Amino acid sequence: MTESDRDASPQAPSGPPPSMQIDAQALRGLAHPLRARLLDELTFHGPATATILGRRLGESSGSTSYHLRQLSRYEFIEADPGQSGGRERWWRIRPGGWSMRGHEFLGDPETRTVAETVLGRYYQQREARFRDWSAMVWDPVQTADVRRWKDAAFDSITTMRMTPQESREFGGALTDFLRTFATRYQGRTPESHPDTENVELQTNLFPNLPGAGEHAPPGDTGPEEPAPDSPGGG
């Protein structure tokens, strides 16, 4: 893990908004599990109030309100300018998203524990979302939504031989392209574009080093059977 990056898609600016680089203080602000759930809700379902989020997550509005203010303090979220004037504040993910240099936090004894918590949850949730989608595609009884999307979704693996510097340059160029391309879809809501769904793009770039299989997470014994075909093209 060298860097984890999360993008958001609020309003449509003229160009991609800058990404926030998470520091150690902001990292600690992510450690609370409810804050991670709040971020997921705002990321995947758009702006909401503390009351709406509390109802969705089974939490009191007082609790969600407090943790939303903490997320705002660390600049992960901000007040939604498109929902002003009401009795309750609407929150949205900050434009541009954020990124962190996870390897640096993991290598520092002062931040290692909190980094393991935050990054562990991040990867578990990321894997779970793709696993849930795969299960729906492989289910012989598919919903209309799955049938509509299964040929549009894809996953792929591309291998290249690079130096570390070339890998950094490639990753930076890819990230810039994705941020720029994504701006054309920013500002969309279920109301303005009812034929759309929230789409998640997961990307990884890492070396296949000798002995990598010896460092599998505890309890991870690998797949019990050969993996089926990819649920999409690519």
List the helices and strands and how they pair.
Elements: E1 4-6, E2 20-21, H1 24-29, H2 33-45, E3 48-49, H3 50-57, H4 61-73, E4 77-79, E5 90-93, E6 98-100, H5 102-107, H6 112-138, H7 144-149, H8 164-182
Parallel strand pairs: 2-6
Antiparallel strand pairs: 1-6, 3-5, 4-5
Helix pairs in contact: 2-4, 3-4
The general outline is globular
Helix count equals: 8
Strand content: 5-15%
Main beta-sheet strand count, sense and barrel state: 3 strands, mixed
Portion in helices: 40-55%
Task: Assign the structural class, choosing from mainly alpha, mainly beta, alpha/beta, alpha+beta, or little secondary structure.
Answer: mainly alpha
Distance between the termini: 25 Å
Radius of gyration: 19 Å
Mean pLDDT score: 84
What pattern of helices and strands is seen along the backbone?
Answer: EEHHEHHEEEHHHH
- Tell me which oligomeric state these chains represent: single chain
**pLDDT below 50 for ≥5 consecutive residues: which ranges?**
1-5, 7-13, 218-234
Strand order of the largest sheet: 1-6-2
Number of strands: 6
